[in-house]
Amino acid sequence: MRKPLIAGNWKMHKTMSEAEELVKELKDRLAGIEDVEIAVCPTSVNLLPVYNIIADSNIKLGAQNMHWEESGAYTGEISGPMLKEIGATYVIIGHSERREYFQESDEDVNRKAKAAFKYGLRPIICVGETLEEREAGKTMEKVKGQIKAALAGLSKEQIAETVIAYEPIWAIGTGRTATAEDANEVIKAIRELVREDFADAADQIRIQYGGSVKASNIEELMAQPEIDGALVGGASLDVDSFVQIVEGAR
Ligand code: PGA
């Protein structure tokens, strides 16, 4: 049985005091929930202040990005050991915004996924198609290329600990959500792709949906058999809406 993961991707939102205020309320309101795993992913300068509040709670910490090297002359970058030491459990890798605005390639995503495991972090690897690709019937072609490249060289044990977020790019921040059935179908196909290379670990890997997830659509998404939670952007910035999303995933 896969435990759903609801992760809030705060992107480049919230100053330190705002982040602290949000997470303090989340900690109180989400206390005691164990049937859904919960994570928040603040911007890098807010990782430690947020961790200091949630360290003894049921909320886990995730970063939004990492470099694959352990250390070195990479101005502006953050390494796995740095994230691990300040309490991160998860790291989002290959978000479509990183791929689009910062030219991250499938090879970079693969290097980062391997580095995440090397330094004791669990990757949340994002994949998804553009609107043009979907309309041209190329959704699975795109996603297959991303999945095969991202997971290359990982072990079955690592796959079992990996999270994939299927996020159709046209649904991110647009208010437009994939139908629950469409999301389920793509996620099912992703699981079969994973099975080709990693056998039974495909039954353990968690595959989330992301893209305009909100309190009003979480329940129908979670009612689908293949959807193991959500990566939530905009709706994770508000206490009430994030709490309702976690509740809706139970
Ligand atoms: P959204 O973002 O929920 O605001 O659409 C999701 C994401 O980018 O992970």
Would you kindly provide a written description of the structure presented here, covering whatever features stand out?
The chain is of the alpha/beta class. The chain has a single domain, classed as Aldolase class I (TIM Barrel, Alpha-Beta Barrel). 42% of the residues lie in helices and 16% in strands. α9 links the parallel β6 (163-166) and β7. α7 crosses α9. It is globular, with a radius of gyration of 17 Å. The two termini are 14 Å apart. 2-phosphoglycolic acid binds next to β8.
Main features:
250 residues; single chain; alpha/beta; 16% strand; TIM Barrel; binds 2-phosphoglycolic acid; 8-stranded parallel barrel
Task: Classify the helix fraction into a percent range.
Answer: 40-55%
Provide the number of structural domains: 1
Report the principal-axis shape: globular
> Span from first to last CA?
14 Å
| Bound small-molecule species | 2-phosphoglycolic acid
Summary, kept brief:
The chain is α/β, with parallel strands linked by helices and 250 residues long.
What topology emerges from the helices and strands here?
Layout: E1 5-9, H1 16-29, E2 37-41, H2 47-54, E3 59-63, H3 80-85, E4 88-93, H4 96-101, H5 106-118, E5 122-127, H6 131-135, H7 139-151, H8 156-161, E6 163-166, H9 180-198, E7 206-210, H10 218-222, E8 229-232, H11 239-248
Parallel strand pairs: 1-2, 1-8, 2-3, 3-4, 4-5, 5-6, 6-7, 7-8
Helix pairs in contact: 1-2, 5-7, 7-9
The structure holds 2-phosphoglycolic acid.
